[in-house]
């Protein structure tokens, strides 16, 4: 902010109750267990919410499935706590013979559409298989040693979502004594949502923030995050912020992205550090030795959107977690289009 004072088996259930189908199909939630490494997929919002309460990380909508079509079967291995999903009746029956518990039809696959890729981790005991709509994720896993096993099933071709809420944590920059620490707080919120930097609080995290010796925010943080300074544009811009974030996880400078691209990142379960204005107010510009800056700029974590009522959800280090109208958010974001995605 600138110049401002400032029991797995029980939970994942015996019943598969799909959510209501929308025009774009049935949204398939994707969750991740950071303890076992397993990804889990479900149309059941109650199952999704119970897993989130149990510590699973919600990663957004994996894809959209039709209300009917070719059945995809779900099986559970009670010995290792792993799930498997398959279109193949023979594979289903062979796993049942091997002691896997058949849990019914999880969703349906259209005869054609967007392919879901299946990969296998030969080194894992749980979470051995992963299924993804995204070619870049498939290719990254192949590079990491996963074995590509082909197309598992299909999704509805239009895989866009109307609603995503990743539920980023909230870190209050002011109670931490960091009135100018919105960039660091927003980055830490995004990292911790993805399971990174869990052992840090804002004070310990900021101690590792790169500082700009020349007070140029293009090179690091200019000034001090714990004190308001005159004649210094106290900020760290996206490029050095992303470089810093990469020390803890995967941070990508996606500045210049449209709001449609921001939604695509959210659909993939990726929160985004966004540069807007305080309270989404009109910009107040100032001239500095490095260029023109927005004096009432503010930074927060974007972690959701709802196309049904045209809103975005943010975790704002200065004001809490809330929904904001798309018109306010987009007008403010589009001033600079500064953004860093956490993947």
Automatic annotation (TrEMBL):
UniProt domain DUF5648: residue ranges: 28-155
InterPro entries recorded = DUF5648, Peptidase_C39-like
The family database entries (Pfam families) matched by this protein are listed as: DUF5648, Peptidase_C39_2
- State the coiled-coil residue ranges: none
Limits of the Peptidase C39-like domain: 166-318
Protein's UniProt name: Uncharacterized protein
